[in-house]
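Incident review: delayed structure delivery

Summary: a single-chain prediction request sat in the queue longer than the usual turnaround. Root cause was a stuck worker, restarted by the on-call engineer. No data loss occurred. The affected request and its eventual output are reproduced below so the record is complete for anyone auditing the incident later.

Affected input:
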Amino acid sequence: MFVSDYVGRTIDILAFRGGNPAEKVLLNATLADETSSGEVTTGVQKLAQRWIITMLTELGSVTYKPEMGTTFMTQLRAGQVHSDADMRALFTLTELSAREQLQNEITATTPLDEQYLSASLESVTVSNGNISITVNLYSNSPENTAEFIMPIPLII
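Output delivered after worker restart:
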């Protein structure tokens, strides 16, 4: 992105590295690595980051914002997912909660590519006891969607 892409927009610190809005990528949860630090993000990448944080935050775990988060990780840790169908059902249920939260954050000045519309679970991968999901995320801007692979911090 160019500096002009950030003019008049709010930004976030980039917490999930490896994102490229034009292709499917595996995200890496770091604020800094051996080559860079302190990067910022905006647009659909910022929206994807907010969605990931909302999905992975356990409902009730944020002291001054107890309504933030979902039961996604709680149910995974409780061993309630045993199959692809279980993961799809859990995703569908918790995505609705994340959708409500993210849509409630939209203001009159939120750019369309940062306005959450929906997300769909494209695939589930279990490899060496680790699990990851491929997600398509849709913003209210028709040309700004994101597809990413989200590693889930859980060994099954």
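Verification: The chain has one domain: 3-155.
Action items: add queue-age alerting; document worker restart procedure.
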